[in-house]
Amino acid sequence: MSADRQRMLPRWVRRLDHATARRINASRSWHVHDRAYSRLSRAGDNGVLWYAAAAALAALGHHRAAVRGLASMLVAAVVSDVVVKRFFDGPRPLSADVPALRRLRAYPSNPSFPSGHSASAAGFATGVSLESPRAGLIVGPVAAAVAHSRMHVGAHWLSDVVGGVLIGVGVAALGRLLVPARTRPGAFEPDVAQIVELIELPPSPDGSGVLIVMNRGAGTAVIRLDPRATISERLPAAVVRELEPDEEMADVVRDIMAGEEPPRVLGVYGGDGSVSRMAQLALEFDVPFLPLPGGTFNHFSRTAGIESVDLAIDALQAGSGIATSIGELTVGDRTTVVLNSASIGIYPEFVAERTKRKPHVGKWIAGVVATWHGLRDAEPIDIVIAGRRARVWSVFASVGRNTPGHVATFQRRTLSDDVLDVRVQHARGSRLQAVAALSFGATTRALLRALRLLPPASDIEHITATDIAITVRPRPGEATFYAHDGELQRRPAVGDDRRYTLTCRIVPKALRVYAPAPSRERDVLESSPR
Questions:
Q1: Is this prediction's pTM over 0.70?
Q2: Would you put residue 464 in left (φ > 0), alpha (ψ -120 to 50) or beta?
Q3: What does DSSP say about strands 500-514 and 320-331: parallel, antiparallel, or unpaired?
């Protein structure tokens, strides 16, 4: 190995690399076996194998799995071959040490670390698994075989392959954070039931008495059909008001509600932030709420079963509704409605960095840059929670009990559960573990925890309560933020004790929401007119 590579890799890694290579090279050569690995290694060149696999998945109806797999593979290849390889100048194993039957016709001359084939394979397999675990059970072993083939033919060291796999898995997992995988039927954890209370709401077949405010800036990071034609066709009597860039939703709605014939239903087309703001106005004027999903993630709408604008209109026309519990978050003299979760720590700082860079490079690249800054600069914060001092990376307060084992509770799992589910990630591990805890989903969680890339379960404290107070003591000059439902807020001024306090409480079944009834009767608490 070159001097540069020797300085960058620990001695025990270099010893393990050489020991693994000697063991593989000394293993018995078998013509069929060696030929299979050689062909598999060549099939991974330029991602040919994965393009073919994606075509097969698409033909079988797994279109989302194919797209996510290819996207993860392509980004992982760029990160591996274009970015990471520039920082390493290590040679590949000597082809003379490789048995003749296993040698490739030609070996690459670029740096050995990391393995681009392994990064592409892991990225594709992880991306597919996030959308279709069953397809992942088939693709995963093939990807593992491709990664192993690079050592079998003498193209890479063990550390190259491991590094490539971690890049591929990391890229796919970050992609899941930016573009959530589709929620599959039965995806909720067995001990987190989808609890709802069905209610009857006034139906509006043609949209009369309905105000729909549209946020023109919502969902610009994803491709989505313009909903105006659908709304106009199905709700011709509804009043549709599109916000101008300099207008505040609260001002527009209050002006309209002050008219001679105020709307009887307040609706909004937008993302979680817009939905949260309109929900607060619906509570203020004591009218039912109609959310139409138009953002990037639509966490609240998805939990309510509103996957599309048409489903929301179906519920409005049928008068189908759900009584939804909410959270009230008070910081200083500001009180806001929380529909999904509120948080402090490294996630709000990530949102702040992403928001700063989004106008220049777009949301996805801004998210990647923000993640890099988190890995480099994130610092824990000092808080007092439940009467105890703690140094933490993150605190998330979910409305309703959430999925066990998660730190980041971006999407609530229940609608009528009357508790807060608070997750405290204590600052006992590294920045990498802290950021990974927010980025990875259940599909890769067990593997990453086994590799010690996620914090141990003992670092995550769970608190269930109807209300909670968190006192934060920011360091001098620190611009600490807090977030709720994807919206970023700057902290208030600290008091004489150099602290400020956030309080959150649950408000049971306070919000009346037009939503389709769930298909499983066991999830329903009761039905009553409202």
A1: no
A2: beta
A3: antiparallel
